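To illustrate the input format used throughout this study, we show a single complete record. The first block contains the structure-token representation of the backbone; no residue identities are included at this stage. The design step must infer an amino acid for every position from geometry alone.
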């Protein structure tokens, strides 16, 4: 986990106290971070570019719901149907109904422990001092409570969503590759959507830019459509992409990563010598 804790380790110190684990307050920086827009956050997969952290698994959503209630999070965040909007709930922070599908668990953990690590631009998020208006809970949570609370938030994948669930990035590891898929909905002026496939070497984490990549889009009512994805560089970095509007009834996306088209040497020559096919369910 050492390499995966870059950002959170600067804000979080874990100490052993009274035979248990506790979260210690880290000093605040004198300069608040620059806010990030919601659009930019979603373009980069629901987390800031370069962000990575691994949270322990095994959280209990039921206990996490109890922690949510104990911390009185509903004063700022509405969750339907568990914590309906009453007396100002949800007026300050964003509604969390269905939020579990939009970000990885570690992003929620960092938001709870260090709200100033990533600040969303807009009213209701930033105070007069340029910092997040959300308090941090490093002095209020044990590690077990944090894991349970994040498990509860991640379980919130139903209900009303502010964008289609298929927009949430999906990731798989297949063969030598880690593959992440993102889709941007069509914009204004009837512009098409944009399908993005990020392919990285599972061993090094580095992008793999020399593969033929095809996608087969399957929907309920229309015949399967096959696309050849092109290498591209954009705001989200290098990816294989295509300007395409996915049907609303899309149910599956199947990707085929062909044999490397450039000469590869050493262990890479063997790892990238066979095509790989993988599928993503689309809801």
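Output of the design step:
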């Amino acid at each position: 986990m050492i390499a995966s804790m870059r950002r959170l380790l600067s804000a979080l110190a874990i100490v052993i106290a009274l035979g248990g684990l506790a979260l210690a307050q880290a000093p605040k920086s004198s300069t608040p971070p620059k806010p990030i827009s919601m659009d930019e956050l979603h373009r980069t997969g629901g987390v800031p570019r370069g962000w990575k952290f691994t949270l322990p698994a095994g959280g209990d959503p039921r206990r996490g719901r109890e922690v949510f209630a104990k911390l009185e999070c509903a004063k700022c965040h509405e969750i339907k149907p568990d914590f309906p909007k009453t007396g100002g709930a949800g007026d300050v922070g964003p509604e969390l109904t269905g939020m579990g599908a939009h970000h990885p668990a570690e992003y929620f953990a960092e938001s709870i422990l260090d709200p100033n690590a990533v600040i969303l631009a807009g009213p209701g998020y930033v105070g007069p001092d340029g910092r997040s208006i959300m308090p941090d809970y490093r002095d209020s949570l044990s590690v077990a409570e944090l894991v349970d609370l994040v498990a509860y938030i991640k379980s919130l994948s139903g209900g009303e969503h502010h964008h289609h669930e298929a927009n949430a990035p999906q990731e798989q590891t297949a063969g030598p590759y880690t593959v992440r898929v993102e889709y941007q909905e069509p914009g204004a002026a009837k512009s098409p959507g944009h399908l993005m496939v990020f392919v990285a070497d599972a061993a090094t984490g580095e992008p793999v830019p020399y593969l033929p990549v095809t996608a087969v889009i399957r929907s309920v009512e229309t015949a399967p459509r096959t696309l050849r994805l092109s290498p591209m560089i954009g705001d989200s970095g290098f990816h294989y992409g295509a300007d395409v509007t996915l049907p609303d009834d899309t149910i599956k996306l199947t990707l085929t990563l062909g044999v490397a088209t450039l000469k590869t040497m050493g262990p890479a020559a063997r790892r990238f010598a066979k095509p790989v096919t993988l599928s993503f369910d689309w809801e």
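Structural context for interpreting the output: DSSP finds six helices and ten strands in the chain. The mean pLDDT is 76.
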